[in-house]
Amino acid sequence: MRRQFVNDPEDVVPEALEGFAAAWPRHVTWNREPSYVLRAEPATDKVAVLSGGGSGHEPLHVGFVGRGMLDAAVPGAVFASPTAMQIRAASLAADTGRGVLHVVKNYTGDVLNFRIAGELLADEGVRSDIVLVDDDLATDTDDPDGPGRRGTAAVVAVEKVCGAAAERGADLPELVKLGRRVVAGSRTLSVALAAGAHPGQSRPSFELPEDRIEFGVGIHGERARERRAFGPRRALVPDMAAPLLRDLDLSRGDRVAVIVNGLGATHDLELYGLFGEVGKLLEEAGISVARSLVGSYVTSLDMAGCSVTLVRADDEFLDLWDAPVSTPALTW
Amino acid sequence: MADQISPAHADLWVRGFAAAITDADDHLTDLDRRSGDGDFGTNMVTGLRRALAALPEDPDSPGAPFQALSDTFLSHSGGTSGPLFGMWFRDFAKAGNGTPALTLAGVAEAAERGWATVTRLGSAKVGDRTMVDAIAPAAESLGRSAAEGRSLEEGLRKAAEAAESGAQGTSELLGRKGRTSYVGDAALGAPDPGAVAIGLFFRAAHASVTQGADGADEANGPG
């Protein structure tokens, strides 16, 4: 049995957005209907960078609206895509005349609604293009007709780097190329120790025996394809990180950015411990941890679990990663 | 009998479609339970109720009712079938906007474009057990009827028959797209609810020019 701080579960998302905008008045404004979050001081002459997706992944995406990252974020209902008209309205509000980059996690509903929004924008004479983020190694298959890998925590790196490049004046084709390059060099694996519960529901979406973990979960509270034995993190981390190294074909001397991300109910004490294990493993493999991000950035409601993301890092990536950013959830 | 779709006919068409879907709600929901997650009928009914409230009282073109329908579906539906229907209606809006009436050739062109749009965005082909299995035969039938110079009534009747037959044919198909793809042959024997809805769409088109068409006929032209 779980308890949550909610009024009417139907109102969870708009009430959170109202509070979010009230808490960060110098960073963002919230448009209630259709719902989207914009920078409080919109940029005037740059490609707009916009992302969106279901709610329940906070601080993603609204937490990354601000200077150096997103110009707008479009939140759907919990775990449901925003609508095409929401995306269109947010894009029109954020466009400065130089076009709009849509950073989209690979889920059928998100992809469809962003593609439709792109067609609606074209009818209005507004250029847009999509960078599709599909970093989840657990959903890698050989089926060319399948939905492909899901998009998970690497989306933060894509938003950071593309946001920085847009701030420096990159045009839309350059941003698309950059974003796709970052995606191609990113892989993630996630594990869960316990499922989260939808707002207003007292039961989690699945139960797990104490000696098992879900290996290869996504960010929508669903089960993974595999259950594995639970153990100390020094035993779990190699299972998560080694397949990423293999799939990215990383070798001695390569540099990576590491994102160790909590899925909603995992404490920083655990996450930093996990990051330490990942760092040791990479050091042994001769791979340099060029940058790191540790915390809960892409969550799955209150799921207990974590994801490990590796992103190939070259000089351009590192320069853009280091560029100033000022958003509610990420600032340096 | 009307030889063109006036704004009043388009209004009747959209209202007739909404009424038919509402009547078929339980049936569509039941079909969707066998192939998806059982919310298709309810989502369509909710979308159409919103659309009816947004319909212009005195549409100035045959595109206007479809525009309201499309905008509503694209504003309120974050899933997959709702937005695809929104884009399907949009091609009828585009064909009918800024013109006093739609000919059979105009309807055929809208269906052809809508077919291309849904195929492009949904990546479903004929035989994938989706709405495309009803759209394709209806669009082809409309194109043939227009080329052969058939009447509007006959062209729409044949399109409705083609769409209904295509929808019925999905009973024999295994789903490859959308949620149906996860349930395999559990859905065999029941038609795809999206395809059935397309059948109802063209049946409503035919009814709009036959039933209650006298009033609409007189209004055809001056409005």
TrEMBL record, chain A:
Q: Which GO terms describe its molecular function?
A: glycerone kinase activity
Q: Pinpoint the DhaK domain residues.
A: 8-330
Q: Which UniProt keywords apply?
A: Kinase, Transferase
Q: Tell me, which GO biological process terms does this entry list? A: glycerol catabolic process
Does the record carry Ribonucleoprotein as a key word?
A: no
Please give the InterPro entries that the UniProt record associates with this protein. Answer: DhaK_dom, Dihydroxyacetone_Kinase
What name does this protein carry? Dihydroxyacetone kinase-like protein
Q: What is the organism of origin for this protein? A: Nocardiopsis aegyptia
From TrEMBL, chain B:
The UniProt keywords, alphabetically, are: Kinase, Transferase
> Which residues does the UniProt record annotate as the domain DhaL?
8-207
Q: Which molecular-function annotation in GO is an example for this chain?
A: glycerone kinase activity
Q: Where is this region: Disordered?
A: 143-173
For this protein, the record's InterPro entries field holds: DhaK_L_YcgS, DhaL_dom, DhaL_dom_sf, Dihydroxyacetone_Kinase
In this chain, composition skew of type Basic and acidic residues spans 150-161
- In Swiss-Prot or TrEMBL terms, this protein is called Dihydroxyacetone kinase phosphoprotein-dependent L subunit
